[in-house]
Amino acid sequence: MPLPRTPLDPGTLSPLAQRTLSAGPAKLMAARGLAPLPDPVDLVSVLYQLSLDAEARLREAASASFAALPEVILSGALANPKLDPRIIDLIAARATSSPALFEKVVLAGGTADVTIADLAARAAAREVDLIAQNERRLLRCPEIIAAIYVNSRARMSTVDRAVELAVRNNVKVPGIAAWDELARHLLGGPGTAKDPVAPMAAADADALFSRVAHAAAAVDDSAITSGDVEAMSAEEAAAVAAAAEVDEDPKVPIAQMTVPMKIRLAMIGNAFARAILVRDPIRIVALAAIKSPAVKDMEIARYAGNNALSDDVIKFIAKRREWTRLYGVKLSLVQNPKCPIPDAIRMMPHLREKDLRVIARSKGTASAVVANARKLVIARTRPDDKKK
Fold first, then answer.
1. Based on the structure, what is the number of domains in the chain?
2. What is the DSSP string of 214-277?
3. Buried b (16+ CB within 10 A) or exposed e, 181-205
4. pLDDT (tens digit, 9 = 90+) per residue, 260-304?
5. Which residues, 6 or more positions from 253, have their beta carbon under 8 angstroms from its beta carbon?
């Protein structure tokens, strides 16, 4: 989130900048970039202030003038340690297209942490590396690490270093799936599953992650995410669960990745990658896949009905209210023998009678769930129907 665009305190501006902003005709000249302001800080400060003016004509002219400022002017302003962080944040919007300007924004003393976090989410690999060099800032603002983590262009080796830095310093990074489990894995604590993949050199890790991420993104995953979750019947839910298995494409060698690589891919990859990772035998990888913020409703419906997935994944789905409110997810969970019985029974009164009848005849559903389905069907049967 960028810094709020709020007006500067006039008292912090130079006398020349204050006079420029106070006079009527001079304000319009300044908004057009024509005011005699030799100091780059004065120029960018005046244009910034006028871009927030109450008069639309001044706002539009000042915004256009600021956008057209030569890079040498912006660099000169950034060299002043007293430049306001809000102005730096505005300059940062142009920084991703200029490596030289990007470096000056990152290294400027007044750059706000939120500005760096925003840049970290959008920057190319080289620029992300520059941001990651400031370990003190990373620890002070772990949101920067989170932004690096979800930036698909960031090198895996850079991500690993940033994550390990946070873990070693007991800093929790927000927004990363299964962070606590990942931290325990990196620290090698008790009960931690050993990574079946041997550690690899940074260059090899970068190349492998990039290759897998690009190959996975090239796979058409529309069949995994498409479908009407609310309109599913019991038969359709069973069919969706039966089709939930996705074979790993040999062109996408996910199995060669380390645990941290898999967890990151679960966060930033597509539905195809998640469909592979949710079946991973390592618990934290499977949970990271189901916790991905990119997961779609139809994916959840598929996973909810797949009894080949781990108990942990099914339990996690069953506890999420935003998912269990979806009819297709409820229906898939109830029919899955791995769904905790109390959760299945809690959801059953919300199912349609025709689906309950199918469940009542099911041989693959938990016996307690089948028995409860029969009770609900009987309870919903009208007295006239009972006589018949």
1. 2
2. HHHHTS--HHHH-S-STT--HHHHHHHHHT---PPPTTS-GGGS-HHHHHHHHHHS-HHHHHHH
3. bbbbbbeeeeeeeebeeeebeeeeb
4. 999 999 999 999 999 999 999 999 999 999 999 999 999 999 999
5. 208, 211, 212
Alpha-carbon distance of 323 to 288, in angstroms, equals: 16
Q: Residue 380 CA to chain centroid, in angstroms? A: 44
Structure tokens of 116?
Answer: 């760096």
Q: Which residue has the tokens 């970068």?
A: 206
36 in any annotated domain = yes
Structure tokens at 218: 């090239």
Query: Could you tell me the pTM of the whole model?
Result: 0.86
Which of 324, 7, 288, 314 minimizes the C-alpha distance to 149?
288
Structural domain for 335, as ranges: 202-347
CA 105/CA 339 separation, integer angstroms = 51
Angle between helices 327-335 and 297-304 (to 10 degrees): 10
Q: pLDDT tens digits for 159-176?
A: 999 999 999 999 999 988
Instruction: Report the phi/psi class of residue 19: left, alpha or beta, with left for phi > 0 and alpha for psi in -120 to 50.
Output: alpha
∠ CA 327-330-335, rounded to 5°: 125
CA distance 168 to 148: 18
- Kindly state whether residue 242 falls inside one of the protein's structural domains: yes
Q: What is the largest CA-CA distance in the chain?
A: 96
* Residue 279 domain flag: yes
The verdict on residue 163 lying in a domain is no
Last-in-domain residue among 111, 128, 152: 111
